[in-house]
């Protein structure tokens, strides 16, 4: 403690500090190249880290900008030539974004957008492939998960692969998220009818009436049940 030190010790402490500072300065002067190099490395690391962060933001922005541009081009072509031709003429644009920005938000969004475009063009094989890869990008609690599962169900139905369509619609029904659950119940009723499983089809139609009385499909299903 300073209060317990005598005058001689107190006078000696500044000399020790000056001596240490002098030694430190002499060391820096003597080894200035090495010290400046070390300092330069530290500053370079700071610049690189900051640059990576900035670059990351820039890359995200760029990926979304390219996706928006590709979508705008698709929409124009779709109006002029229809979904099939628009798909053919924009697939390189979307694939380039997906390949280059696979880990970026824009790249993942482009994959979903391109899957929708493939579906509209009735290229169901391509749609299935893209939707499955999009599903891998999502966490289990993602709000988009049921939308992708539903899209896979519709895509497999487009391929007349009703067993796989049933599989993906059932994943929604059995999941925790309520989004599109009534749609999935309705779609399972349709799919089982196409599979000529009429009892199973009616089971899901009745499930819709009992559990989702506010569903947009309710009037249609009530009419179907009453006619059966």
Tally of DSSP helical segments: 10
What order do the SSEs take from the amino end to the carboxyl end, as H and E?
A: HHHHHHHHHH
Please outline the major beta sheet: none
Number of strands: 0
CATH class of the domain at 47-137: Mainly Alpha
Q: Share of helix among residues?
A: over 70%
Q: What's the arrangement of secondary structure elements?
A:
Blueprint: H1 7-30, H2 32-81, H3 83-100, H4 105-120, H5 124-137, H6 145-158, H7 162-174, H8 181-194, H9 198-211, H10 218-227
Helix pairs in contact: 2-3, 2-4, 3-4, 4-5, 5-6, 6-7, 7-8, 8-9, 9-10
Give an overview in words.
The chain is an all-alpha fold. It has a domain at 47-137: Serine Threonine Protein Phosphatase 5, Tetratricopeptide repeat (Alpha Horseshoe). Helices cover 82% and strands 0% of the residues. The protein has ten helices and no strands. It has helices at residues 7-30, 32-81, 83-100, 105-120, 124-137, 145-158, 162-174, 181-194, 198-211, 218-227. Helix 4 (105-120) packs antiparallel against helix 5.
